[in-house]
């Protein structure tokens, strides 16, 4: 696994489901209030289908359409030119793309041995709803999060049959049934049978392209355009992750996930690790915004699906039913509430977090769940620009302070403040 993107979904499922806490409640009282003058712009969606004109490049007006309000999601046709798309793909190819997900069996057994957990204790960890039985979805979630292997209910039934695990045949594993299985029975079964690429959470290749000084002009232009689009302080965009370029071959997919982790008091963001004054057990990517660029038009499939966009309510359990698993983008993209067709040069962008109501990043937006549908014909190229912001305002400010003190950034000092005087409200007008 790479990059912390999978880590986002990992901590999402690993972390306790209660105890949500707003970011500001753990701000440090010692820091002066005046630092909180910053207010992040959040673009208004108005209503689904609303179109606003935006000026992003001189002499050209783009139209930005609201695709959903939950999450706040927009589409901008022609955000990149054909040439820009070609250059980004060529640069990525020149650099070389690596497997987005590797099939590694990394030290899980040792961890379990070290902790010396009893079968009861493991059973308890897996029994999310604490009803004394392991439902299919409890095992599925576990294998997806821990091993990155995307089991389907049928796979699991096949494994149960192979291991004669479900003695009473009720489709559930009781503690008694679980006890009869050896520690790593599932893993060993899978290993023996072999795991195909199509059975992974993600089946693609990717690379990272830096966009700072000295980078190809096209990459710097894209960064500047993203800054204008999002109307965020340039320093925040500058300090964000490089551009990620992703290639899916025919048959490639990326099951539904969050690009960012949830906000808990004990979570730290990967990008502000420097400024964290304690080491935390949970580290996650904090990606306030995702800008997704389509670098080519795909011959078949490959849509970006948002399974629960604009749902009236969000119910995580109902996402995985025995019949329909809405997270499965190989099977159930058709049942997603919203699908975006990959069209060369188009961009979509959405907010992975809500606002805290005070101009900063609030809680994770659970509706931002999305994935890449299976590519049925041809190849699919996309790029991701993530804008990293720590929901903990003080930690973000400390981090920017620290980076601005690095000598090589001397001439950049002015860019590295959180001041928002760069905002240009006139570039977004309603149609
Ligand atoms: C991603 C992602 C969607 C797509 O790379 O994080 O969600 O359509 N991609 O490829
Ligand atoms: Ca259970
Ligand atoms: Ca049973
Ligand atoms: Fe994603």
UniProtKB/TrEMBL annotation:
Domain Fe2OG dioxygenase: 239-389
Skewed-composition ranges (Basic and acidic residues): 7-27
Chief location bin: endoplasmic reticulum
Cellular component annotations (GO), alphabetically ordered: endoplasmic reticulum membrane
Entry EC number(s): 1.14.11.29
Disordered, as annotated region: 1-34, 402-431
Reactions that this protein is recorded to catalyse: L-prolyl-[hypoxia-inducible factor alpha subunit] + 2-oxoglutarate + O2 = trans-4-hydroxy-L-prolyl-[hypoxia-inducible factor alpha subunit] + succinate + CO2
Membrane topology listed for this record: Single-pass type II membrane protein
Highest taxon above the source species: Eukaryota
Subcellular location: Endoplasmic reticulum membrane
Bias-annotated ranges (Acidic residues): 407-416
The keyword Metal-binding is assigned to this record: yes
GO molecular function per UniProt: calcium ion binding; hypoxia-inducible factor-proline dioxygenase activity; iron ion binding; L-ascorbic acid binding; procollagen-proline 4-dioxygenase activity
InterPro entries associated with the record: EF-hand-dom_pair, EF_Hand_1_Ca_BS, EF_hand_dom, Oxoglu/Fe-dep_dioxygenase_dom, P4HA-like, Pro_4_hyd_alph, Pro_4_hyd_alph_FE2OG_OXY
SUPFAM superfamilies: EF-hand (SSF47473)
SMART domains associated with the record: P4Hc
Keywords: Calcium, Dioxygenase, Endoplasmic reticulum, Glycoprotein, Iron, Membrane, Metal-binding, Oxidoreductase, Repeat, Signal-anchor, Transmembrane, Transmembrane helix, Vitamin C
Composition-biased stretches (Polar residues): 422-431
Gene3D superfamilies with a match to the protein in the record: EF-hand (1.10.238.10), q2cbj1_9rhob like domain (2.60.120.620)
Cofactor dependence: L-ascorbate
Pfam families: 2OG-FeII_Oxy_3 (PF13640), EF-hand_5 (PF13202)
Role noted for this protein: Catalyzes the post-translational formation of 4-hydroxyproline in hypoxia-inducible factor (HIF) alpha proteins. Hydroxylates HIF1A at 'Pro-402' and 'Pro-564'. May function as a cellular oxygen sensor and, under normoxic conditions, may target HIF through the hydroxylation for proteasomal degradation via the von Hippel-Lindau ubiquitination complex.
Assembly mode: Homodimer.
Protein's UniProt name: Transmembrane prolyl 4-hydroxylase
Gene name tied to this protein: p4htmb
């Amino acid at each position: 696994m790479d990059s912390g993107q999978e880590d986002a979904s990992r901590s999402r499922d690993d972390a306790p489901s209660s105890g949500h806490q707003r970011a500001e409640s753990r701000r440090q009282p010692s820091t002066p209030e005046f630092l909180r003058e910053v207010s992040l712009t959040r673009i208004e969606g108005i209503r689904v289908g609303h179109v606003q004109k935006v000026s992003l490049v001189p002499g050209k007006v783009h139209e930005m359409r609201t695709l959903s309000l939950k999450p706040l999601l927009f589409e901008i046709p022609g955000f990149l030119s054909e040439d820009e798309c070609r250059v980004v793909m060529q640069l990525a190819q020149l650099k070389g793309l690596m497997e987005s997900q590797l099939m590694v069996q990394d030290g899980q057994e040792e961890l379990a041995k070290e902790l010396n957990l009893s079968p009861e204790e493991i059973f308890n960890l897996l029994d999310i709803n604490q009803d004394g039985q392991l439902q299919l979805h409890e095992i599925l979630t576990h294998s997806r999060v821990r091993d990155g292997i995307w089991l389907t209910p049928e796979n699991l039934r096949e494994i149960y049959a192979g291991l004669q695990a479900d003695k009473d045949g009720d489709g559930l594993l009781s503690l008694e049934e679980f006890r009869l299985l050896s520690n790593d029975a599932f893993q060993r079964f899978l290993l023996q049978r072999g795991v195909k690429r199509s059975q992974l959470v993600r089946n693609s290749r990717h690379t990272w392209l830096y966009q700072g000084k000295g980078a190809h002009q096209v990459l710097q232009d894209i960064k500047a355009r993203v800054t204008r689009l999002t109307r965020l302080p340039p320093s925040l965009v500058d300090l964000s992750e490089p551009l990620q370029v992703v290639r899916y071959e025919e048959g490639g997919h990326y099951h539904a996930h969050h690009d960012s982790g949830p906000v808990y008091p004990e979570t730290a963001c990967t990008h502000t690790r420097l400024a964290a004054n304690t080491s935390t057990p949970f580290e996650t990517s904090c990606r306030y915004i995702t800008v997704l660029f389509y670098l080519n038009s795909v011959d078949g499939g490959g849509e970006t699906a948002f399974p629960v966009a604009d749902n009236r309510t969000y119910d995580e359990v109902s996402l995985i039913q025995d019949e329909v698993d809405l997270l499965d983008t190989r099977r159930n993209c058709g049942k997603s509430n919203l699908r975006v067709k990959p069209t060369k040069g188009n961009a979509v962008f959405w907010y992975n977090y809500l606002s805290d109501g005070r101009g900063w990043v609030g809680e994770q937006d659970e509706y931002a769940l999305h994935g890449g549908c299976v590519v049925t014909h041809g190849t699919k190229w996309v790029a991701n620009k993530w804008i990293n912001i720590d929901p903990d305002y003080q930690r973000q400010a400390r981090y920017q302070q620290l980076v601005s003190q690095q000598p090589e950034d001397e001439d950049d000092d002015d860019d590295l403040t959180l001041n928002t005087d760069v905002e240009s409200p006139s570039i977004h007008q309603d149609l």
